[in-house]
Amino acid sequence: MASRLSRFWPTLSRVRLSSALGSRCVSQTPNSSASGAAVASDLQPVSPASQDSHGHAEVSPFEKNPDFHGFHHHDSFVDEWNMRLAFFFGISVAIVVGGTFIHYLPDHGMRQWSRREAERLIKQREAEGLPLMTENYYDPSTIVLPSSGEE
User: Fold this and answer.
1) Which of 27, 24, 63, 59 is nearest to 45 (CA)?
2) How many CB atoms sit inside 10 A of residue 37's CB?
3) DSSP strands (E only) in the chain
4) How far apart are CA 41 and CA 121, in angstroms?
């Protein structure tokens, strides 16, 4: 384990040193000293900072606001409030309104109505003393059949 760590130690020390400097730097000489560790004089910035027409260096939104949410580039306060509003209306309100809408949808396929109607007919037939089901769906006395001569 120690041999693996010693193999990557120069790389780790360069990363630690460059993060301590506060900018992205890279060593131009692979083995600048006998120990293999880079020193501040060996490190150079990866890319020069771009400047606008007034000579001011352009700063990344992530450096200005490390908690950048992607809603406003310049103002972290507006960025945070826009994120909060977007998540509130996009998530909370959508779940509440959507859940309420789904709950109050009409009876699909009239399943609840057919159950209530069947229970009502069963109670009515039991009260009249009739069987719950008969062999004929329709009352045969009410069916009018054509005469044999009308065919």
Assistant:
1) 24
2) 17
3) 25-27, 43-45
4) 95
